[in-house]
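Appendix B, record 7
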Amino acid sequence: MTIDTIVIIIFFAVSMIGSPGPANMALMAAGARYGYRASLPFVLGTSSGFLLVGIGVAAGLGTLFEIFPALRITFLILSAAYILYLAWKIAFSPVKKAGNDARSGYFAGLFVHPLNPKAWAMLIAAYSQFSSPELSPLMNFLVIQIIFQIIGITLNSLWCAGGDMLARIVQSPATLQRINQGLAALMLVVVSLSVWQSGLI
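Structure tokens (predicted):
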């Protein structure tokens, strides 16, 4: 894999991971509700979940979605249900300050990307466009995943820290609640657009 290809993968990853999506909205809301430090398990959970998507795409699950429409529809139903659950939790959970009993957990973050159509579409595009015939499938997987993991943890952390910063600036719990509800609504909009653009429907 050439340096030029690696640079293109980096730009692709930054543009896709950094743009608003269900995961980033959830990360920002977690940062606003619990604070950045308390939300680190959630950040690590989303990163681990993204790795699971990468493994699934490399193993050919993306192709199975095309071959078996029933599997694709089942995935979309599960995705919609989980995203709706996250949006409801973000919109209506009480605003809290970070503390020993206020944390957003690892396993809550773990399922965000596996049930996120944007993550699947992103990695299917990355593997199909940037895999090098000169490298083994394992090496292609490692190179692409290492790039996406480094950029993902960095940008996801920034979204989470942005939520924390927002909570520090906005002191009114009522205003924070409205912001969280706005993030939840935006999450539903962007996941709908992601599903529409991903070709999964």
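Remarks on this record: The mean pLDDT is 80. Residues 137-169 form the longest helix (33 residues).
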